[in-house]
Write a structure and sequence with these properties.
183 residues; 2 domains; alpha/beta; D-Maltodextrin-Binding Protein, domain 2; 8 helices; two-stranded parallel sheet; seven-stranded mixed sheet
Length: 183
């Protein structure tokens, strides 16, 4: 198990600002009617670290019925959706403790002037090696994951002598292994 911390930020246009203003004012959880329902954009498959971080950040502010998460295939698409108002806000990682700053995400923030950072959170990630039932550690020849966890675990994987393949995100990698039956 390898631990890293990611520092994602909630990025938004005007609509989500009221939710965060209430948090800073010390107001308690709000219902969907108070916040006009929040649609949170995240990158990747359902269950991705980004979705989990977003839910964790907004949980104290919005009840479960008022929060809808929406998956996107690129961070650029998240920023566009915020600008066009199709989502309320998005969760975007800007740095990790092991990998450092994600400069491309800062570039997107500069390119999309209608989007700004509303809040930051720290989200602890514990990378775990998953496999199909019956898979042994010795039987694993290739590890599939997003580039960030592969980088975080690079020295461990190098010592172990396995090949690596990059996937869109960790949740997609797990889904691909499940669907393809690879070990």
């Amino acid at each position: 198990k390898v631990q890293t911390s990611v520092n994602p930020a909630c990025v938004s246009g005007k609509q989500c600002s009221e939710v965060m203003r209430r948090q800073r004012s010390g107001l308690s959880q709000h219902s969907a009617s108070d916040c006009a329902s929040v649609r949170l954009a995240f990158f990747g498959e359902e269950g991705s670290y980004s979705e989990c971080a977003g839910r964790s950040l907004l949980r104290p502010l919005i009840d479960a019925e008022g929060l809808q998460t929406v998956s996107f295939r690129s961070y650029e698409d998240i920023f566009r959706a915020i600008e066009h108002g199709t989502v309320t806000c998005g969760i975007v990682p800007f740095e990790t403790t092991l990998g450092g700053a994600m400069h491309g995400h800062y570039d997107l923030l500069l390119q999309h002037s209608g989007v700004h950072i509303l809040a930051e959170t720290d989200f602890l990630i514990e990378h775990c090696l998953l496999g199909l039932p019956g898979t042994t550690r010795e039987g694993i020849k290739t590890v599939l994951s997003h580039s960030s966890p592969l980088q975080d675990c690079e020295s461990y994987l190098r010592k172990w002598g396995v090949a690596t393949l990059t996937s869109k995100d960790t949740a997609t990698a797990a889904k691909e292994i499940r669907d393809q039956g690879a070990t």
